[in-house]
Structures are given as C-alpha cells and as structure tokens.
Amino acid sequence: MNITSAEFVKGIIGTDPILKEKYPQIAFVGRSNVGKSSVINSLVMRKDLVKSSSMPGKTREINFFIINKKYYFVDLPGYGFARMGAKGAEKIRKLILWYLGSGEARVNMVVLIVDSVVKPMAYDKEMADILRAENIPFVVVANKIDRLNQTERSHNMKAIESSLGALVLPYSARTHSGRDELLETISKLIK
Ligand SMILES: Nc1nc2c(ncn2[C@@H]2O[C@H](COP(=O)(O)OP(=O)(O)OP(=O)(O)O)[C@@H](O)[C@H]2O)c(=O)[nH]1
Ligand SMILES: [Mg+2]
C-alpha cells in the first residue's frame, strides 16, 4: 500500500452515517498515550494530520481520515486512562466497545498498538480477546522501539508476542521504522 492522500473527515461520538459507508475501516486501538495518533501520522508521513500530545487522553472522539479516497483510518481514544476519572474512562470504554462490537460500523481490521517499552497490560490482553471474540482481523504494533536497545527489543517483542498471542510488528512513529511492513500487513489483512 502506497499512501497518496489523507484527509480528516469527521469525529463522531455515537451513531453516524459514516459508519455504514462503503469504504473499509482500519481502526487504531490501544491504551492512552501508546502513540495511536502518532502512528497514523507516521503512516501518512504528516506531522500534524492527527493531533497527538504528551498529555494522555488527547483523542476524545472517533476520528475518521480518508486515505487514497478508498479507506478510512479510524483513530480511537485511548482506553485505560486513569486520570480521566472513573466516569470519563467508562464513557470511553463504552464508546470503543460500541464501535468494535455493535455491528454498526464496518470495521475491516484493527491495528492494536502497544507500548514496546512496558510489559503488555491487562487492557492490552482484554482488547486482543475482544478482537478475537468479534472475529476482527488485527495486527499488534509495538510502538516506541526507538527507546529500546537491541537486547531489550528482542526480549520485549517476545514477551508481547506470547502475552497477546498475535503477530507483533516492531514500530517507531518517531523514526518510521517498521512503516513498510505495517503498510504491507494492512493491505494483506483488508483483502
Ligand atoms: N519515543 C517515541 N515517542 C512516541 C512514539 N510515538 C508516540 N510517541 C509520543 O507519545 C506521546 C503520545 O502520543 P499520541 O500519538 O498522542 O498517543 P495516543 O495513543 O494517540 O494518545 P491518546 O489519544 O491520548 O490515547 C507523544 O508525546 C508522542 O510524541 C514513538 O514511536 N517513539
Ligand atoms: Mg490519540
């Protein structure tokens, strides 16, 4: 897959006609602050298509971006962000589960992003289980590998693979390392 165009379309917080459009949806899911928005910017080679921030909880809506006038990249809010408070976190959790599980959206595949620097957390495992239960094809992206040396990298990749039981691609949104492999995997999985 070669990305030639990318544009923001809209952000939603509930049912919307965009969910039913013919374009396949590739959703980016993961804990708060793992770099979902940054990975999308890295894939489209833009610094600021998607707003990213060092303050966790930046993305609050389900944001749709049209790619090559053919697919939607869908940026979701992060799950498991404690500082949002129990109420806010529950709202976001419901929003994500509704998007993935209600059948309203045409979710073609998911890119499940985890932080390669820390061990996979209960939330990551729960998300992998939900995707399996919903029969949604997914790939795990271990982001921020620029922060690890070779030894840590291979150690952490193995730990993530065995904990989530899925294909894991090392990635850095900062250096774009792993970009070609991820684009290749996305085009295979949406077929
Ligand atoms: N070193 C490093 N930092 C990264 C990488 N990707 C993202 N970051 C940083 O991590 C922070 C969070 O990035 P975001 O893209 O906003 O994360 P997010 O998952 O969209 O966060 P929420 O929208 O709050 O759920 C920012 O400070 C980014 O600069 C990476 O590959 N390497
Ligand atoms: Mg975000």
Walk me through what this model shows.
The chain has a single domain, classed as Rossmann fold. Strand 6, helix 4 and strand 7 form a beta-alpha-beta unit. The chain is globular and about 45 Å long. The protein has a 7-stranded mixed β-sheet with strand order 1-3-4-2-5-6-7, with helices on both faces. The protein has 5 helices and 7 strands. With 191 residues, the chain is α/β, with parallel strands linked by helices. Bound molecules: guanosine-5'-triphosphate (GTP) and magnesium ion. The site of magnesium ion (MG) has 6 residues, from helix 1. Its cofactor is Mg(2+). One of its GO terms (biological process) is division septum assembly. Necessary for normal cell division and for the maintenance of normal septation.
Short description:
InterPro entries: G_ENGB_dom (IPR030393), GTP-bd (IPR006073), GTP-bd_ribosome_bio_YsxC (IPR019987), P-loop_NTPase (IPR027417), Small_GTP-bd (IPR005225). The chain contains five helices and seven strands; from the N terminus they run ββαββαβαβαβα.
DSSP strand content = 15-25%
Ends apart, CA distance between termini: 12 Å
Dominant shape: globular
CATH homologous superfamily identity: P-loop containing nucleotide triphosphate hydrolases
Q: Please state the average pLDDT score.
A: 91
Which strand order spans the largest sheet, edge to edge or round the barrel?
A: 1-3-4-2-5-6-7
CATH topology: Rossmann fold
User: Which structural class is indicated by helix and strand composition?
Assistant: alpha/beta
Low-confidence stretches: none
H/E element order: EEHEEHEHEHEH
Bound molecules: guanosine-5'-triphosphate, magnesium ion
Total number of strands:
7
Total count of domains: 1
Pfam family, one: MMR_HSR1
Cofactor: Mg(2+)
Function: Necessary for normal cell division and for the maintenance of normal septation.
Family: Belongs to the TRAFAC class TrmE-Era-EngA-EngB-Septin-like GTPase superfamily. EngB GTPase family.
